[in-house]
Amino acid sequence: MKHAFHRLDAPADLVRVTFRGQVVDxxxxxxxxxxxxxxxxxxxxxxxxxxAPRAPFCMMGACYDCLVEIDGTTRQACxxxxxxxxxxxxxxxxGADNALG
Length: 101
What we know:
The chain is mainly beta. It has one helix and seven strands; from the N terminus they run E-E-H-E-E-E-E-E. Keywords: Oxidoreductase.
């Protein structure tokens, strides 16, 4: 499947992370939200009230649509860098139905 987001160049070093229980190789040090989008992740979380899907919107930390949980802490994916061994889950315990597109 083609993704709306893609890399312009080949990543130098890939590291292994886990998103919703699936292993994904992402470029070390790259913006986490951008790397997940380029890897085909289309939904980062679902809202706690309505269950509506959410993914990065502003990419600068203002909107909170890219919330994920890492090591038990809810964080904005657009404000983080990819690092080896990250275990990433949707924020608020709601699963993302269409996580890897």
